[in-house]
Design a protein that fits this description.
Blueprint lengths: L1 E6 L5 E5 L4 E5 L2 E3 L1
Antiparallel strand pairs: 1-2, 2-3, 3-4
Length: about 30
């Protein structure tokens, strides 16, 4: 589960996972 969901200047959703890993979600595509 992730928290601290944010929207950055690129319009991407950023999910911060419990282990500290950041995941960017842009247009349904997950970028690590």
């Amino acid at each position: 589960t992730g928290e601290a969901v944010d929207i950055n200047e690129e319009g991407a959703l950023v999910l911060k996972k419990e282990d500290g890993e950041l995941i960017k979600i842009i247009s349904g595509t997950i970028l690590k």
